[in-house]
């Protein structure tokens, strides 16, 4: 569990600098330059992600079961992760209703992904991993909305064509991940 927690601290720590130390972040960017800052941020994120994956794999060998997920949990998780996968491209595609309504669809997608996996897994390592991401997403969303209000950011109204692009891109990515990559990368086939 130590490797998993270390990975979470590095990964979520790097992704939390803007939440808790915006002035420090801006000073580092001014000092280092944007490219060097992004390189350091990317390296920290990759190291953290590798440690999370490795640590979760180690913890899965001897899981501590906390509860038995209900029989319907994988189906709810599949639906919630489908929505999360749609929200990821919506965050980067201009002019869609998801971004207009939710403001920060990727962070909401992370929260849905984490919640879905909490419902479908009943082990301590799953609680640590997905619980950490869920808490981080809630805190990050609140911080992002505060920044939006302070900067008086308005999100433009969306168009149906942009919505369709986000839905199609997300659904295709979800299907590829659920039916092919999840079993290969994670060792679990979510829908059998």
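Sequence proposed for the structure above (192 residues):
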């Amino acid at each position: 569990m130590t490797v998993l927690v270390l990975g979470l601290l590095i990964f979520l720590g790097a992704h939390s600098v803007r939440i808790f130390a915006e002035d420090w972040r801006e000073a580092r960017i001014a000092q280092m330059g944007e490219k060097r800052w992004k390189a350091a941020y990317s390296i920290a994120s990759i190291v953290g992600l590798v440690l999370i994956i490795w640590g979760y794999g180690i913890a899965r060998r001897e899981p501590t079961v906390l509860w038995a997920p209900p029989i319907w949990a994988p189906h709810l998780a599949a639906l919630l992760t489908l929505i999360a996968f749609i929200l990821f491209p919506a965050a980067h595609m201009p002019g869609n209703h998801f971004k207009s309504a939710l403001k920060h669809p990727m962070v909401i997608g992370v929260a849905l992904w984490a919640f879905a996996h909490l419902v479908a897994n009943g082990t301590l390592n799953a609680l640590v991993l997905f619980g950490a991401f869920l808490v981080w997403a809630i805190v990050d969303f609140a911080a992002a909305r505060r920044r939006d209000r302070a900067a008086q950011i308005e999100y433009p109204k969306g168009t149906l064509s942009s919505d369709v692009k986000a839905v199609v891109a997300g659904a295709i990515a979800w299907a590829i991940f659920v039916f092919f990559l999840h079993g290969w990368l994670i060792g679990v086939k979510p829908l059998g």
